[in-house]
Amino acid sequence: MGRPVLDRPAFERLATTHRRELKLHCYRMMGSLHEADDLVQETFLKAWRGRMQFDGRGSPRGWLYTIATNACLNAIKARSSAHRVLEEPARPPTEGPAAAGPAAGLSWLEPYPDAELPDLVDGEPGPDARYETGEAVRLAFVAAIQLLPPRQRAALLLCDVLGWSALETAQLLGGTTASVNSALQRARATLGKRYPQGRPLQRSQPNPEEGRLLERYVRAWRAANLDGFIELLREDATYHMPPWHDWYRGRPAIHDFFKTVWGNFAGYRAVATRANGQPAVAIYARRRQDPEWRAQSLHVIEPAQGAIASLTVYVGPLGAGLFAAFGLPPTWSEPEA
């Protein structure tokens, strides 16, 4: 008997089933929502063209992950930076007004809309996974694994996030089981230097307390209430604002910075959303003498014990450019009374 060949309807069903989980995998590898979109398209194009090579003995899912992972590794090799950053290593927190300005030479980690997260069924992590599904999509986790060399990153994602065995991963990446185990050991050691327990702290599922925190955050921005916003932060909170170099630590420092920029706009409109499994808020701002509310920034919130432990605010053209990916328009229209 000849080898089974995927016809177009079967291939389309396969693509529909696995598109979202493959896009998330590409995002984790690349740190970029836009690159992930392109690489998923490339994966399915290569899969369709090479469908005669699929002999039906392995799983279609594994075959697609092989193509997607290799596409990511090739894309990383071709670009100027092997990883994207959420913060600059070893850069101390800023005190006072932001002075360093945008970092044009850095590639910044992008947030991921919860609306694009897969409905995990067949794609549930295997028994060897070390990370929970929700934990492995958090902004802090994706930022941490960006520090790994690409092949170590791929091995950690396949084994510790997806739960594949070292043997399966070696077959996908090429090489031996020993080489995969070695890459995993190095990857885990690198994460261990960044996190006391070798991994980001686990988060609980969204709860009513988190919902109330998000509501208070939205109200504070809609009311242009700077003090109300600052009250939601933990005393030791951190604030990053890609693509600016500057970042702040501690409620007083964050307050002093915002006090210098809060009055730059005539007002704000806030829309609740979610990114990376975390609460998020899209901010529209209106400049004085401007009738329109324009996309201004995207805020990703890390809650802890009823307060905000860290806040990442994508500002400037970078922030406004993310609105479309979250299904948000570039300008805000006030609802009719």
UniProtKB/TrEMBL annotation:
Which keywords does this chain's UniProt record carry? Sigma factor, Transcription, Transcription regulation
GO annotation, biological process: DNA-templated transcription initiation
Q: Which residues form the SnoaL-like domain?
A: 215-309
A GO molecular function held by the record: DNA binding
User: Which InterPro entries does the UniProt record give?
Assistant: NTF2-like_dom_sf, RNA_pol_sigma-70-like, RNA_pol_sigma-70_dom, RNA_pol_sigma-G_actinobac, RNA_pol_sigma70_r2, RNA_pol_sigma70_r4_t2, RNA_pol_sigma_r2, RNA_pol_sigma_r3/r4-like
Occurrences of domain RNA polymerase sigma-70 region (ranges): 15-80
Residues of the region (Disordered) are 85-105
Q: Spell out the Low complexity composition-biased ranges.
A: 96-105
Question: RNA polymerase sigma factor 70 region 4 type domain: from which residue to which, for each copy?
Answer: 139-191
**Subunit structure, per the record?**
Interacts transiently with the RNA polymerase catalytic core formed by RpoA, RpoB, RpoC and RpoZ (2 alpha, 1 beta, 1 beta' and 1 omega subunit) to form the RNA polymerase holoenzyme that can initiate transcription.
Cited PANTHER family: ECF RNA POLYMERASE SIGMA FACTOR SIGG, RNA POLYMERASE ECF-TYPE SIGMA FACTO
| Family as reported in the entry's similarity comment | Belongs to the sigma-70 factor family. ECF subfamily.
Q: What is this protein called?
A: RNA polymerase subunit sigma-70
- Organism, scientific name: Rhizobium loti
Lineage of the source organism?
Bacteria, Pseudomonadati, Pseudomonadota, Alphaproteobacteria, Hyphomicrobiales
